[in-house]
Amino acid sequence: MQKKIEIIAKSQEEALAEAVKRLHISSDKIFINVLGELPEGLNCEALVDVNLTLEGKKYLENILKALNIGYQIEARSVGDSQIYFNIDSNENPLLIGIKGKTLDAFQILVRTLISSYTKEKIISTLDIGAYKSNRAHQLEILATKTAKEVAKTKISVKLKPMNSYERRVIHEKLSEWRDVYTESEGEGENRAIVIKAKNA
């Protein structure tokens, strides 16, 4: 559900101005619905009226245009709770950054934008030049190989620190294994997964 608030105002224009102030969203993305009249003024409902997928795509396009980078963006939604963005550009390494840190920053920006429009938990995922899908494949191979060693030796293995996306890939890959389980340890950038044997 996209954000909405109730406002009592003397006119629709006044209600719109108040909604912009309270929602921190531009007026062209707000719809004012008059619910009725009260002695103190109009009882209005201010609704955020945007297509989240298109808004995210436009936002990314504006960033890339400002950077003067040629690009193609694919944007698609899956149901009401997931949005996927994929960028392919002539500067993919620059946009991905070292260890994907620039890509992570772009994703935070997009998530912040989308959360400003809705109260629902929307999972928005950004990939650039298939970096994340390739990385996920590498992590799944690492997870499987390490899990086999742990199951055989019964000795826990701590992997290198990873970001939340990478840790989730490992957790999901090993979630149904009968012989091992995973835990995250550490804080911030030092947070890492430990693969442990069951019944060790």
Search tags:
200 residues, three-stranded mixed β-sheet, 6 helices, alpha+beta, Ribosomal Protein S8, Chain: A, domain 1, GMP Synthetase, Chain A, domain 3
| Biggest sheet architecture | 3 strands, antiparallel
Q: Report the total helices.
A: 6
User: In the residues, how many domains can be counted?
Assistant: 3
Strand content: 25-35%
CATH superfamily annotation of the largest domain = K homology (KH) domain
Overall pLDDT, averaged? 92
Strand order of the largest sheet: 1-3-2
H/E series:
EHEEHEEHHEHEHEE
Radius of gyration (Å): 23 Å
CATH architecture of the largest domain: 2-Layer Sandwich
Which parts are unreliable, with pLDDT below 50 for 5 consecutive residues or more?
none
Describe the protein's topology.
Elements: E1 4-9, H1 12-23, E2 30-38, E3 41-48, H2 52-66, E4 71-78, E5 82-89, H3 92-96, H4 101-115, E6 123-128, H5 131-153, E7 157-158, H6 164-174, E8 180-185, E9 192-197
Parallel strand pairs: 5-6
Antiparallel strand pairs: 1-3, 2-3, 4-5, 7-9, 8-9
